[in-house]
Amino acid sequence: MTDSGPVERLSENIWLAEGGIVDFYGFPYPTRSVIVRLPGGALWIWSPIELTPDLREAVEALGAPAHLVSPNKIHHLFLGEWKDAYPQAKLWGPASTIKKRKDLSFEAPLDNDPPADWDGAFEMQRFTGSRFMDEIAFFHKESRTAIFADLSENFSEAFLKEHWSWWARPIARLWKIVEGYGYAPLEWRLSFNKKTARAAKENVIAWNPERVIMAHGEWIRENGQAYLKQAFAWL
């Protein structure tokens, strides 16, 4: 692992970029993006964070952003500014994101089959069965990295003490979106048809990832399959 300014290299063709904190219904949430260099050399940007000048310089040192990816309808805030900066890049997301962001022009909705444009770099699994939310999980095959947005949240006690109010910290523990659990938020879990979601769960566990990266919380550097079994124990 090496660092290059605002991006952190995880393996030969995958990097992390940490963003600022955003307010989500009164709860402070950190932001994080994943950058992958596809076999053809183009960059794939998952859940784009705020595009600061430093981040833009670091990203362009890696290659040309060609694919901007929203994993669910919550992760859309910075798609527009990235598209403005890289008008040639294609926008991707599930149908729920496309419906929410009618101001943007997307490619065909994402489901379980990766687009041919992505050079065979990924496997995908769409989690359905909730009336309120769906999400597409990704697996970068070369680095054995599974990528989740809100299906797993894994806040550290240190982060909660620094950023969450005293009255909010017990909520995080009650929801089990903390280290030791890594669950999805409680209201989302309660909305799922568990039978439908279990099939998706088994598929992502079968990926047998080494790393697990989530948008919010402490990401997992090794033994990723064991972490996923824990994070999806509610199913």
From TrEMBL:
Top-level taxon: Bacteria
Protein name: DUF4336 domain-containing protein
Species this chain originates from: Hyphococcus luteus
One Pfam match: DUF4336
Database matches in InterPro entries: DUF4336, RibonucZ/Hydroxyglut_hydro
Lineage summary: Bacteria, Pseudomonadati, Pseudomonadota, Alphaproteobacteria, Parvularculales
